[in-house]
Amino acid sequence: MSVEARINRLFSIQGKCFDVAIDHGFFNEYSFLKGIENMEKAIVTIVDANPDAIQLSPGQAKILQSIPGKQKPSLVLRTDVANIYGKELPSHLFSELIDRPVEQAVALDAACVVVNLLLLPNQPELYHQCVRNVAKLKPECERFGMPLMVEPLVMQPNDTHGGYMVNGDITKIVPLVRQAVELGADIIKADPCDNVEEYHKVVEAASGKPVLPRGGGRAADEEIFARTHALMKQGASGIVYGRNVIQHDHPDRMTKAFMAIVHQGFGVEQAMGILRGE
User: How far is CA 175 from CA 124, 204, 262, in A?
Assistant: First the structure.
């Protein structure tokens, strides 16, 4: 199977995709488990809401793929586990690839694999390891026709901003996105920038590769809907959201609302209507 064939399983004819990330348990952080304590229930809930894809770790992907029927979201397989998400960073940081990641992805019938490209202040060894991970994955992805999604993630200093705080500085996001493309990314999963009206610069840096902004931490409903709508207007090809879906009181309605924004261009009030069940 070719890379293009699998990409066609992820994206609509118009080139849009909503990937719901439910791989947070991979990272050994207690706060990430809110809303996904029961993974089977969480996955079935999202499957019923019918997004384009669900992002899972190898150990949980079988729950999705055991669900019968043709009409279910495609699998995006997380291929690296990192220890950078706590409020206090450990003395040794890592981002470790799983063994034979692309072979595992093929065996699980994944449509894509995803890997981090982490840029943390004063952590050059971690950054170097991530570059190696991407470089190692690329030829294997080419061999098996597996799309490679790279997640360029720029973070703020942990000692002043707590754990897992994204840096929205566009001058830091843009070059890391470009580097991900240069390393061979087929899809970019990038952070939104501080000024969402500048996001077209991130899209431009991706050189024609589809850009799916990340959702990050929980935000108010109207705020995340407005941001998503603005990102789509700036040229994003979709979104990869996790906690703004799975930690919501109505993850099914949130999924449907985001799908309407991504695929139908719905605005904030229309999305809020879906969330209210109207």
Answer: 16, 11, 26
CB 206 within 8 A of CB 176: no
- pLDDT per residue over 51-76, tens digit each? 999 999 999 999 999 999 888 999 99
pLDDT band of 265, cuts 50, 70, 90: very high
Q: pLDDT per residue over 94-116, tens digit each?
A: 999 999 999 999 999 999 999 99
Q: Which residues form the domain of 154?
A: 3-275
By the 8 A CB rule, do 132 and 147 touch?
no
Phi/psi at 11 (5° precision): -105, 150
Q: Is the pTM of this model over 0.85?
A: yes
One-letter amino acid at 250 equals H
Integer Cα distance of 131 and 129 in angstroms: 5
**Which secondary structure element, helix H or strand E, spans residue 80, and what is its range?**
strand 80-82
Indicate which CATH number applies to the domain containing 26.
3.20.20.70
Is 88 in a helix, a strand, or coil?
A: coil
Question: How many domains does one find in the chain?
Answer: 1
